[in-house]
Amino acid sequence: MTDRTKASLECCPRNRRLDGFIAQRIRESIFHGVKYLVTPNLHYSERIYWIIAVTACFGYAAYLVVDLIVKYNKNPLIISFQSKETQISQIPFPAITICNVNILKGPLIEEIVLEYDRRYAEGMKKNLTEDQLLKEPDFESLLSDYLQLGRFCFQAKSFRRYFEEDIYDANGHPDYLFETNKNLLSLDKENYAVFNEIMDIYNNELGELYKDATHNCEDMILKCMWEDKVLPCQKLFFEIDTRHGHCCVFNMIPKYILGNLQDNDTRTTSEKSRLPKLAIEEWKQFDTRNMILPEDSTINRSYPRHQKAGGKPFGLSILINPELDLYSTCNTNDAVGFKMVPHSPISFPRIMDKGMPIPPSSEVFVEIEPVLTIGNDDLISVDRKKRHCYVKGEMKLRHYKFYSAENCLEECIAEFMYRNCSCIRYEMPRNSSQKLCGAKDGDCITRVRMDAAGKSGRCSYCWPPCTEVRYKLQQTQLPLRENYSSFLYDTHKEKNKTASNFSILHIYFGTDSLYATERNSLYDAAALIANAGGLLGLTLGFSIIALLQLIYFFTLEAWFKYKSMRESDTVTPFKNENKDLLNQPIRMFSVTGTPRPTIESEPEHYNWAQRRTQILRHTGPVNNDISTNNATESKFRRILISKQIPFPYLS
């Protein structure tokens, strides 16, 4: 070691050098075992042991914490069962959508087709051109109706239709609309556009045509019971347009409220005319926060309806008429009967995808099992791409007031269809400026639906709400007795109508209660910190206080130590003008309260540490332990006198 190095070490006390400072802080650290790494006078085998032990603990702690974070990022949710049962009366009864598999009535198709052929033949006899024929009274409207029926018919094909097999209606008439559709597809682009323009002119009258051409609820649903009480069916069911045609729905929010339609929209006025006033008022006030009723609440609203207890007597029972004599070649299935789907009261029905068949001449029992999933409020802290569900208010839809996966999917397909096909289907959410799809758009519509479906599809972001009710069903059926083959019923238009091949349908919750599942975050911020802190405390003795202590050591304390060293290095020897003080005895501590002598040239805040450093710098190292015994005091006094440095009085 050089003299200069030796001198530098001697002028700086060990606890003020960098190595001494760090070693001292490590010894004072709360971390387990770390102090043995810098403890002096340890045998090398002991030191190696503690190096291995501390390194292993640090490595194991890092492994445990990283594994915890990986698990949290990979599976941030946990699904558990609630400890208490949820009563059936707390859950809304599902909306029930029932559709006839036949889309259009055969006699009406035949009437329009034959009338068109007759008018067209008359025009040809008069040698009228096509332009002159279109100017004939009501002929353009008749042609539009003819073309619109084809638009309705081919929005959903049956299995046999894909193979272009010959299909006949219930009365043996050929497939008029299929032939018309083939003729339209064979037209060039310019002529096809002419026919599309004709249809667009009469779009405002499309609703009335659709209503007349399809099966109406008054003729399909004849008798109704709810909770063993006979009720008018028109107060329970209203009509809704779906991909499956004109359908009847029970316990669903009116589509004009769900779709935020304007009051002057024709669809709004049509629905309002068929709904009870109480239903409109209560559905307008509905909030999804009231979807699941509290445990101690009572049912004081009629909509949405709730089943009081499990079992068939507390559910819905209806008598339905398939009207087989009105079947045409325009149908979604090659069978006869109905399709039924239960769904959320605030969701659009996916009858084509999930409908369950209801055969004619049968008594069908449908037991519904609700599956309730409740999302806790702490889910908002989890990334939605990992939880795959939406908390309330997180996802808004343009065309629907309430969010559901079904509504999102329907809106997504509609928007995707309009971007790719430049048209949209009649039953989909749309505005008045969007063109309706025609015969040549069938392939594009099918392609859009295929591209939108599935987890990898365009609509893969349509996750369910974190709190939702799904409905599973089990179906059993029995054939009706032969002497029940006909049934007389009345409508507001006709009396003593005959229904043949009708079915009786019972829909009900089969249980009184259920255990709901909960979506919870696996760890919230507090739990994640607690788990990580527990692992670090177990392996290293880590705590928040230890972390704060570590930060203090290497920030505030290190800074003040450094500042103290800088100030000590710049202090000049003090020139004492009052030499008489040197002969006075040194008092390290004053316990008598004797006043301290006044030294004019002494700084107001005398720094004993700085003065001691000056002494040591001029005299070389001395014993750091300054006691009050006479020998040490005399030695120190000699140093002070020889260097003419005043020794301070400490009081």
From TrEMBL:
It is a multi-pass membrane protein. Keywords: Ion channel, Ion transport, Membrane, Sodium, Sodium channel, Sodium transport, Transmembrane, Transmembrane helix, Transport. It comes from the Eukaryota. It is found in: Membrane. Coiled coil: none annotated. InterPro entries: ENaC. It holds the Pfam family ASC. The keyword Cell division does not apply. Signal peptide: none annotated. The keyword Cytoplasm does not apply. The chain crosses the membrane at residues 48-70, 528-556. PANTHER family: AMILORIDE-SENSITIVE SODIUM CHANNEL-RELATED, PICKPOCKET 12-RELATED. This is Pickpocket protein 28. The lineage of its organism: Eukaryota, Metazoa, Ecdysozoa, Arthropoda, Hexapoda.
